[in-house]
Specification:
- 80% of the residues lie in helices and 0% in strands.
- Helix 7 runs antiparallel to helix 9 and helix 11 runs antiparallel to helix 12.
- It folds into 2 domains: 61 residues, no CATH class; 346 residues, Na+/H+ antiporter like fold (Up-down Bundle), CATH 1.20.1530.
- The protein has 413 residues and is mainly alpha-helical.
- The protein has 17 helices and no strands.
- The termini are far apart.
Length: 413
């Protein structure tokens, strides 16, 4: 099966399932698209005896998709850049304390607490290092799922900035933590100070690279009066900056996020006639939405390649409980700290907890775990957490917010 054939199937599936979601299921398009893809994949797997040709076709399709490469080195740079570039910078600046605490302290807490709970809930049968690897890959909230959910639920701007900023920044930190722990698990055991230095170098280098690349791109954009060239420069920054950071062993996800924010900041300081903001923004909104649909189809198809046996199923249930319990505890503790430092700070424990969705990055990282380090159960548990997160949490957010709004109105009346 050629690349063109795979792409045609993915886009056609996204379009058809998007139509069914919006017209008949009345679900958010991305949630409905992933749900329908999962159901279709399960049906194809179950049709192995009745219709072996369809089952063989589905297996052939999935085998031609390198999910780890497609997500980490294909879609993620554009998705992270788009999400960061389209952020409300004024609101993000107002919420910088909350975003910093949730993306750094919250992620670090989550890694070790999720690992500890998994170690206990699975009856100590899983080695501690495997639990740590799982904690590192599942702790970052997914910017793709979170930003899509925020756009359709209409939560207040301060909470949007808190969730969106956290999800964009903790991806880079979570990926660096995971890769560092993976090196340790493979037998490379650097001293604690070396690990800390490695984290600082990768994260700091990614941030610096993003700022410098964005400044250079902004300077080039101001020298041309054609929106098509402006768009090409932004695409070059989104892809080229990520590739360069990856080649230099820096945090490529952090570079993409910082590059998007920094480019928006530098362009706003240019005279309006120098950069066609309207057309550039419209382009990135369309790219973001189309990639969302295709990514959720990919995540739905992934079930064909995932082994969800007894141990993986039990680990998945334990993971869903652990991830959400730790998320609630971290949100309560960190919001209390924020309100202590900023009296009157506006936020919502419910939205920040239930809206901390997991997605494609976690699955891509799980696919990179070697078989000897628990890849089977880690991938199965990660997939179950992601499906629960996107379909149940993301799909129910609109309804839950409407119910909460009605209760608050009734109480005030």
């Amino acid at each position: 099966m050629s690349t063109l054939e795979v792409l045609s199937v993915l886009f056609a599936t996204a379009a058809i399932f998007g139509l069914l979601s919006a017209r008949w299921l009345k679900l958010p398009i991305t949630v409905g698209t992933m749900l329908l893809t999962v159901l279709a994949s399960v049906c194809l797997m179950g049709a192995g005896h009745a219709a072996p040709q369809f089952h063989a076709w589905a297996l052939n399709l999935v085998r031609h998709i390198d999910f780890e490469s497609v997500i980490l080195h294909g879609m993620l740079p554009l998705l992270l850049f788009a999400g960061a570039f389209l952020l409300d910078l004024e609101q993000l600046a107002r919420e910088k304390l909350a975003v910093s605490l949730f993306s750094v302290v919250g992620t670090l807490l989550s890694v070790f607490l999720v690992a500890g709970l998994m170690f206990l809930l699975t009856g100590l049968r899983i080695p501690w290092m495997q639990c740590l690897l799982f904690g590192a890959l599942i702790s970052p909230t997914d910017p793709v799922a979170v930003l899509e959910m925020l756009r359709r639920t209409g939560v207040s701007k301060p909470i949007q900035a808190q969730l969106a900023g956290e999800s964009l920044f903790n991806d880079g930190l979570g990926a660096v933590l995971f890769l560092t722990l993976l090196e340790v698990a493979r037998g490379h055991a650097p001293a604690p100070w070396q690990i800390a230095g490695m984290l600082l170098l990768k994260a700091g280098g990614g941030i610096l690279a993003g700022i410098l690349a964005a400044w250079a791109t902004s300077q080039l954009m101001r020298r041309v009066n054609a929106y098509q060239v402006d768009i090409l420069f932004t695409v070059a920054l989104a892809l080229g900056g990520y590739v360069l950071a990856d080649a230099l062993h820096l945090s490529a996800p952090l570079e993409a996020v910082v590059a998007g924010i920094a480019l928006r900041h530098f362009n706003r300081r240019q005279p309006r006639e120098c950069v066609d903001h309207e057309n550039v923004d419209r382009f990135w909104k369309v790219i973001d939405e189309i990639q969302n649909f295709v990514l959720f189809v990919l995540l739905g198809l992934e079930i064909i390649a995932v082994t969800v046996d007894g141990p993986a199923l039990w680990a998945g249930v334990a993971a869903i409980l652990s991830v959400n319990a730790v998320r609630l505890g971290a949100v309560v503790a960190l919001l209390a700290l924020v309100r202590l430092m900023q009296p009157g700070h506006r936020s919502s424990t419910f939205v920040l907890t239930w809206g901390g969705l997991r997605g494609g990055l976690s699955i891509a990282l799980a696919l990179s775990v070697p078989a000897a380090l628990g890849r089977s159960w880690i991938l199965g548990a990660t997939y179950l957490v992601v499906v629960f997160s996107i379909v149940i949490q993301g799909g129910s957010m609109d309804w839950l917010l409407r119910r909460r709004g009605r209760k608050q109105t009734a109480t005030q009346a």
